[in-house]
Specification:
Mean pLDDT: 96
Number of domains: 2
Bound molecules: guanosine-5'-triphosphate, magnesium ion
Strand order of the largest sheet: 2-3-1-4-5-6
Helix content: 25-40%
Strand content: 15-25%
CATH superfamily of the largest domain: P-loop containing nucleotide triphosphate hydrolases
CATH topology of the largest domain: Rossmann fold
Radius of gyration: 20 Å
Largest sheet: 6 strands, mixed
CATH architecture of the largest domain: 3-Layer(aba) Sandwich
Shape: globular
CATH class of the largest domain: Alpha Beta
Distance between the termini: 43 Å
Low-confidence stretches: none
């Protein structure tokens, strides 16, 4: 009989390299929000793949970056802690020219210091000419004794087939850690709160996304099971740090907040499989990203 394998796999790398896109691709569900802006992911997100012979517990993490304190430092700590606790690590980079920037070099050093078996994943191969790939692989092979080097495109799904097999091969023999029906540790209300933050990232520029948090104030499912008339009522607060940011989020005559709300509502309806009635309210919480108390109030418990 074949032995069952199971373990935790940490997905780490610089911001924006496609870690969350890869998580979603592998789990086959939109679990982590994705955006073209760096520092999209703020927490550790579990996605479980269960098969007959194995269970892979993937952990998406915030991007590794130079952080001075507050929310950003907390995000980097969380990523490094997840790496330290994992059985196997995936270090994601973006395909491109072989030159390595100092920030990527620093992230590589952090991965080396973790002393974990690590697969190098070269993501976004759809975005570069094939001819660039071999020199890039050679360059990176010189830098670390990778368990394996795996070029793929998380967005397009190129070369993703077989990737889970590659992960399983490096996991310890172990019984499953989660019941087969469990695919995440996120509650629906957390996922909904993130869907609002995703729209905020999409509809606001510059510093605003980094100053926002979303708190679900009400998640009323009492009318959910009414068949075609089923409904979930959700009320959420959008926290910002300054009055000027509040004005930006609301927009002229409330136009931007309306767009954010309807975008988020559509995504929630897809997730929950029912109609959603969503109310958003913008609140100023001065400097919440910088103090422990502020972080707690914004739902980022340590
Ligand atoms: N062309 C291309 N774009 C990709 C690929 N994977 C991800 N992206 C894009 O890269 C951007 C960042 O993706 P995310 O998955 O949010 O990146 P992340 O590493 O989780 O970023 P943080 O959470 O900020 O650390 C998004 O615009 C994605 O659509 C890929 O394989 N090819
Ligand atoms: Mg992410």
């Amino acid at each position: 009989m074949q032995h069952h394998r199971a373990g935790f796999v940490a997905i780490v790398g610089r911001p924006n390299v496609g870690k969350s896109t890869l998580l979603n691709r592998l789990v086959g569900q939109k679990l982590a929000i994705v955006s073209p802006k760096p520092q999209t992911t703020r927490s550790r997100i579990l996605g479980v793949i269960t098969r007959e012979d194995a269970q892979v517990a993937l952990l998406d993490t915030p991007g590794l970056h130079a952080a001075k304190g507050g929310l950003n430092a907390r995000m980097v700590r969380l990523a490094l802690q997840t790496l330290a606790d994992a059985d196997l690590a995936l270090f994601l980079i973006e395909a491109g020219p072989p030159a390595i920037d100092p920030a990527t070099r620093k992230a590589l050093d952090q991965v080396k210091q973790a002393h974990k078996p690590t697969l190098l994943v070269i993501n976004k191969i759809d975005a570069v000419p094939r001819i660039q790939l071999l020199p890039l692989i050679d360059r990176w092979k010189e830098l670390h004794p990778w368990t394996e080097v795996y070029p793929l495109s998380a967005l397009k799904g190129e070369n993703v087939e077989g990737f889970v097999d590659a992960l399983v091969a490096h996991l310890p023999e172990s019984p499953p850690m989660f019941p087969p029906e469990q695919w995440t540790d996120r509650e629906e209300r957390d996922l909904c709160s993130e869907l609002i933050r995703e729209q905020l990232l999409r509809h606001t520029g510059q510093e605003v996304p980094y100053s926002t948090a979303v708190l679900i104030e009400q998640f009323d499912e009492s009318e959910r099971e009414r068949g075609p008339r089923g409904l979930v009522r959700i009320a959420a607060s959008v926290l910002v740090e300054r009055n000027s940011q509040k004005a930006i989020v609301i927009g002229k005559g409330g136009a931007r907040l309306k767009e954010i709300g309807s975008g988020a509502r559509r995504e929630m309806e897809r997730l929950l499989g029912t109609k959603v009635f969503l109310q958003l309210h913008v609140r100023v919480e001065p400097g919440w990203t910088r103090t422990a108390k502020g972080l707690r109030r914004a739902g980022y418990e340590d």
